[in-house]
Amino acid sequence: MSKFCTSCGKELEAGTKFCHKCGAAVFSISAEAKASPNDIMPHKDFLMSKATEKIKEESNNKANHYAEKIFSDTVPAYELAGEIGLPLELAPFPTDFDGDGLFSVLKSGLGGLMGGFKRTLGDKKRITLVIALTIIWLLVNLLAALGIFPLPLRLLSWLTAAQGNLIGGTIGKGLVAALLAQIIVHKGMLTVLKSGLGQLGSILKSGKGKAVPLLLGSGAVLIVCNMMVSTNLQNTMVCIAGFALSVKALTQNGFLRRLIMGLLPKAKDVTITTIMGGWTLGFALFAVVSLLPGGRNGYLLGILLLVVGSILVITGRNKKGVMAE
Questions:
Q1: CB of 134 within 8 A of CB of 176?
Q2: Phi/psi zone of residue 231: left (φ > 0), alpha (ψ -120 to 50 degrees), beta?
Q3: Where exactly are the structural domains of the chain?
C-alpha cells in the first residue's frame, strides 16, 4: 500500500526508504500506528509548532520578569521621553489593588521605616549627614533662643528646616533630611526627578476628568503640611523637600501609592496617579500660601479644596444617576 513523504507530501511506493523528490528518509510505521495522510502533521508544520511554543515560553518569562519589577518596592524611572508622554492609562503600574488592606500597608510602611533606620546606621554617608543635621538644628535653635539670628543663620535654618514644633517639625526635618540623603546617596536622583516632572506634566495636560482627584490630593497635603509647619516663608524648605520626594514617588510603586490604594481600594490606577499628582502640587501650593500673612492658611485652603472636590463628586454622581434614569 502506498504512503506519503512526511517532508514534502509526495506519494511513495511500498518499500521505498528514501523520497525520490526531496530525499528525506522514510520511516516505517506499524500497522497499529498507521494513520491517514490527513492525520499526519507535515514536518514543517511540526517545526513551526515547536517554534511557536518556544516564543510563547520566552514571552511568558519576560512578562513574569517585568511583573516582578512592577510589583516590587520601586519601578525604574522612565528614561525615554516617549515613555514619559504615555497616557496615564498605559503607565506601568498595577490597575487593581490585590493587597491585604490598609493595615497591611501601614505595617509594611512601618517595617520599611525601621529598615531605613538600620540602613542609615550602617551607611557612613547617611549617618554622617544625620549627625551633621542634628548638630546644625541644635545650634540654630540655641542661637535663635539667645536672640542671635543674623541672615546667614536664617538661611541655614531655612535650608535645613531647623525650626518647627516638636512632632510636626520633626517630620518636616525628616523630609528635608530624606531629600538631602537621596541627593547624596542616589546617583540617579536627578534623572528620577526629571521623569517624575514629566509624569506630573502628563497628568496636568490630560486635564479632562482629573479635577476632582487633583483637588482632593492637593487639599489633603495642604492640611498635612500645615500640621508639620506653620505657613511662613521660613518653613518653605519643607514644602520643597515634600514636592521633590512626591515627584519621585510618581514614578515608583512605593509606600505613598500603596497607601492611597489601601484607602481607595476600588479606585482605578489613573485616579490613584492623579491623586498623587494633586498631592505633589499641594506642596507647591503650600509654598505659595506661605508668602501670605498668617500661619494657618494651609488649613483654610486645604479644607476649601476638599469641600469643592467633595461637591464635584456628589454632583457628578447625581448627573450619572439622572442619565441612568
A1: no
A2: beta
A3: 3-67, 99-324
